[in-house]
Structure formats: C-alpha cells, structure tokens
Design goal:
This protein has 74 residues and is mainly α. Helices cover 49% and strands 8% of the residues.
C-alpha cells in the first residue's frame, strides 16, 4: 500500500489560473507516478466521468507566463 501524499506537497502544486485553483497535468502525473502522456490519454478515454469544467488548455500567453514564473522548460 502506498503512503498518502502529504498535503503540503499537494498544496505547492496548486496554481491560480483564470481565477481558478488548478494543477498542471505534469504535476498530477508526478503525484500518481505515471507519465503525463498516459494520464492525458486516460482522461481523454474517460471524458464522460469528468465535469465539463474539469480541465482546460492554457493559452500560449498563459504557458509562457508559467514557464517564466516557475522556470519550466519547453
């Protein structure tokens, strides 16, 4: 059985984008110990299980801003 992830680690992954608290797919994949590609594929295969506002794609400007803020590489 895997240990629970400490709340502090999860809280550090939460970002405020468009006035909403969100987590990046890469951060969720890391928490679940899966590849980002596989996480996204699983979500797309099961879209009916998620509410309409469950996810959204960042604009190019938002992506660039995040890269600058957190030092993320392309």
């Amino acid at each position: 059985m895997k240990a629970l992830i400490p709340v502090e680690i999860i809280e550090k992954k939460i970002l405020l984008i468009r006035g909403e608290k969100v987590m990046l797919d890469a951060d969720l994949a890391e928490l679940y110990e899966v590849e980002t590609f596989n996480l996204n594929k699983a979500v797309k295969r099961n879209l009916d299980r998620f509410p309409q506002d469950f996810m959204f794609q960042l604009t190019e400007e938002e992506t660039d801003s995040l890269r600058f803020q957190i030092g993320m590489s392309k």
